[in-house]
Amino acid sequence: MYTSILQNISKHISLDKEEADYFMGLIRFKEVPRKALILREGQACNYLSYILLGAFRVYYVDEHLREITVKFAIADSWVTDMHCFLNDKPANLYIEAIDESCIYQVSATNLEKLLHHVPKFERFFRILSQYAYTREQFRNIENLSLSAEERYNSFLETYPRITQVATQKQIASYLGITPEFLSVLRKEKTLRRIS
Description:
195 residues, alpha+beta, four-stranded antiparallel beta sheet
């Protein structure tokens, strides 16, 4: 049952049986139906989630009540509103399952226990933070330097399965374009494949 999450961790640190057992005793398993929220804006942000199966989108609601997707999170990745989780602040973001999903969650309290009892997890979460920062930096550069079509192609390479579970509106908001323009890009891509 814990194979995937332990393999994810083993990419960066090695755990002995006692350390792995301690970690597994601190996490909880949760099934999340499609369209369910695991975090809402204003809610206490108490959990860091590992996605075992499924997919999530992270978004905020702007002043015009539009949902702006800032991230998609897929199986074998971690998700939370990191700023609020680390600083014990109410969430700024929503995290919604866009597919039937299963997650493991560690609470902020249990994470502190884990870091104290198994200090090598400090390294694991530092590496996760570095990867997350790098991804965000790369995404910012793409948004500033690539055309909409190039951003869409990059999105398809990064998240090939998301197009099957996310709506066109959600993908368009992530790319910073309108759903109508995304429809045009998709049609052009299909026509190029056919010819």
